[in-house]
Every structure is written in C-alpha cells, then in structure tokens.
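User: Hey, my collaborator sent me this sequence without any context and asked if I could get a structure. I don't really work with proteins. Can you help?
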Amino acid sequence: MKKRLPYILGLGFLIVLGITTTSMYLRSQEELLWAYRPLFFFLSLWGLIMSIGYSYLSKLPNKARLLGLSTLSGVLLGVGFPDLIPVPFLMFIGFIPLLLVEDEISKQQPKRAGWQVTKFAFHTFVVWNIISTYWVGNAALGGGFFAIWVNAALMCIPFLLFHLTKRATPKLANISFIAYWFSFEYIHLNWDLTWPWLTLGNSFAEYPSLVQWYEFTGVFGGGLWILAINVWGYQLYQHYKVERQIARGLASRIGITLILPMVISLVMYYNYEEQGEDASVVVVQPNYEPHYVKFKIREKDQVQHFLNLSEQKLDENTDYLVFPESSFGTSRYVRINTIDRHRSIRTLKEFVAKYPQLNIVSGINAYYDFGPNEAFSDAVRGRKSGSKTIFYETLNCGIQINAASDTIPIYKKSKLVPGPENFPFQALLFFMKPLVKKLGGTTAGVGSQENRDAFESTSGKAAPVICYESVFGDYFRGYILAGADLAFIMTNDGWWDNTAGHRQHLLFGALRAIETRRAIARSANTGISCFINQRGDVLQATNYDEAAVIRQNLKKNKKITIYVQWGDAIARIALFLSMLLLVNLFVKSRMKEEQ
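Assistant: No problem. I've predicted the 3D structure and written it out in structure-token form, which is a compact way to encode the shape of the chain:
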C-alpha cells in the first residue's frame, strides 16, 4: 500500500488539475476571471510532479518523513502569511520542520548532503510560494509559474549556504541562517528581478498594533523576531528529544522574545497620538475591471465617471482628490511634451478650476519624446515618422493638477515590475532581445527616475506612490526624505481578481504608515481603496468590485522616524556578516581540501 500511495495521490492530483484547467479555460473563453482557481491549479500540478518524482526524490530510508516535514514547513509559512487565515504566529515555527530535515539529512549523509537538502528545501519554498502568491496567475499564468518556481529556487540559496556553513563551522550555524536569509531578502529588494512580496516582516501586516516598533527597525525587525524564535524553537525541540525535558533557560528566552515586543508595541499603539495639521482628502474608486472592461470603454466616458463620483464628496475645503494608477491615457497615451493638450488633462484642468484649493493627484499612462540632442534613457524606443525615427520612452506616471499653477509636476514610477515594466539583466540576457521582439514585446521597459519626488502645493507635500512601490520600505522612505508629509498610493489591483493579492498589497501599506508615521490615502481601481492613519489602522475600506468615493481628514506629519533616517540597517549589517561568513566558509573548505 505504501508503494502505491504516491500513484494514488498522483491520480487525485491529476483529476483536480484536469477539472481546474478546464474551468480556467472555459472562463477565459467567456471573459470571466479565475478567482482562486490558480491556487488549486498550482497545488495540484506540484502535487502531481512530486507524486511522479517521489521514487527519484531521494534514496534516504526516511524520505517520506522528510517530505512530510518539508511539506509542513511550506504549509505553516504559507498559511501564516497574510490573508488566507489571520495566523501570523505560525511564522514563528514555520522553519522548524525544515531545519529538522536539514539536520537529519546531514547526519545520515554527511558528505553529500547539500543536494538532498536543496531538494527538500525547494519543495518547502514552492508550497509556501503557491499558498501565498498563487494569485499572480490571475494576471498572467506564465508570470505565476515564474514568480512561484523561480522565487522558490532563489530561496534555496540562503538555506544551502546555511547548511554548508553549519557543516564547516557548527557554532556559526544559527547566526548564518539569519544573516544569509536577510541578505537574500535585501538583495531581492534591490536587484532587477526584485520580488520581495514574501519578506518575512510583512507577515504581521494584519496586526499593526503588534509591530509599532517598525518605526525603528522596518520590516527586517519583524523578520529578526521570526527567525530568532524559529532558531531557538528548533534548539528547544532538539534538546527535548535528547534530554526528554524542557531547557528552561531556552524556553524563557523564547517566551520573553515572543511576548516583550508585542507588549511594547501595544503600549506604543494605545499611547500614540497622530501629529500634524489636517488635510481633507477624497479618494475615488472607479471600479473598471482591467482584463476585459477598462480598456474597451471610451476615455471620455471614464473621465466623466471619475468626476461624477468625485463631486459626491468634494467641497471648497477639500485639499486633495486622489485617482488610481493609469487612470488616464488608456486609449491614447498622454504625450508628456504636450500634456496640456491631452483631452482628459484639459477636462481635469477645467474641473479643478471650480475648487481653488483642490489638488488632483492621479496616475496616467504616458510617453515622452526625446529632443534631437537630448540624452536617451535606458528605456528608449523608436518609432517611424515619415523618413525620421522619433525616439521616446513610455511611462507609468503620477501627476498633480491644481488651479494655482499651469505647470503639471510629473513623477515617473521607478520601482518597476520585472517582466511587464522592466526586462531584467538586459546586459546579461542580450541574446533574448530578438526573441522578445518577435513575440511582440519589448526589452526597453518603462522609463524611470533616480530619486523620489513629493508633489508640493499650498496644501502640503504629497508622495505619489505608484502600485508596486508601496511594497518597498527603504524605497518608500525616499518620498519622506523628499519632504512628503502625506502619502498617496495609486494602484490597479484588479488584475489579481478578488483574491489574497490585493488584500496583501493593502496591508503592506499599513506597514509603510508605521515605518514613516505618515498617513496614507489609497486609491485602487477596484478594491481596496481606503485611508491608513499613522498607527497603521485601515479606515473606510471599500468593497471589491464596487464603485466608491470616500473622504477623510488626514494628519500631515513632518517628523522623521528612526527608520526613515537609517532605512534597512539591519539587513545591511546582515549582508556584511554574510560576507564574513562566506570568507570563513571558503577558508575552511580549502583547509579541508588540503588535509
């Protein structure tokens, strides 16, 4: 029966995969969204792969137990991440089963354990990624495959380095696990293939009252909290397995480390008073489904819909009116060189003239034509105009329109989504350019700018944060350093349907509010639009798939937090430690070779 079990499970996974695939295909034909179907698609696909490959997975006699433990780790980490079930405390034990797998393999196969450890770790990380980020498949199924399996492979690197360091210098095992993991997360925040969605400190986004101290540490403080308790929990289990009794000192350390940060945070939370003068802010949620609806409706009609919603809440005292990402320039991109001539922009200028105090902050699709002697950006493209070639760049922008100035400030989204907005490692993957162009895409990507901006007016200084940029704490603080006393997150999360993705994205905004102590107005094309105060509380959250307009007075804070001053200092220290650990690993390996 045990020998047949993988094949029985494989048959079950195959049936689920067939049903899910058929359902997804039929819904696509009817222009209906997939909702949670990608979760079952990816899980059943991976289950089928593991069932078929079970006999080749490992020759270790206890591989069924090892597979069970690595699966348990993936489930704990996946379910502990925001949204599916609000249980972030599972993250405190999520790595322990995988650490046990590493230990058992190392003892059974001490000389060639690295490959075995990597295989089981990869399984853990695939399960974690599927449960937490399956929703990427709603935007693009291929993108979902890439995000899940490539990210899981990258996660194996710090775990393998930990295994090798532990084998070479056991006393450095614990610190190496934390240092390597943080180094991975930090690099993942800052390189071309950036996908930091599963940064460990994001796990507590549902409970801002428990992580008020992020204003000092940022999310890496939360990650340190998680990893430290996992390491000590693993040690506690190992001690109990050998001694058959609890190590009281270690248990006390775990208890204090678990409870004390929460107590400190709750004291901070209930004693925090928002700072700054009031700004009256109105947020519009137009509710255009992006896959099949938004780009088929005339922009003129969309603009009128925006303005009709806006007038429900506007008055002469309103300071800001916030629209989502890519609100305008949908049928015809806005030409930045002549932005005042674009029909939608002219309509907005006429509208704002009725409210002398009002600033409209909105996302737009745009392009910029380079002049004859102007230096090109990395995102330059070319188009034929008669016998000439005009060089230009496409842009995902934020703009501000008011009655006090004829000049329209423009901010270029600069933390770009790998793939749709940025072709990673162009210099390294130059040979892929012809293929990408043949498939109808471009390697040029989207134009960006080096520094953050804050839109200034008599009402204050507002950070125009566009979509993906709100996931990056160190990047987000750049707006504050530029003088922003408020932040507006403009996004279009409808690509992911009504699943965990758009809710996770919202919750990450609460962490940015705590880190910077800046109130946030969030305008989403379709759910969830809301306000977030300086404590990270979500206010007036709108429903998904529902047009809405909301209004709130937000405090404009000018004070700078410790995190804004220092950024991801914890991660940078970890990166330095990782370099020292790698040097030590290299030296120890050479010494063993010479013996």
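In plain terms: The radius of gyration is 26 Å. You can pass these tokens on to your collaborator as they are.
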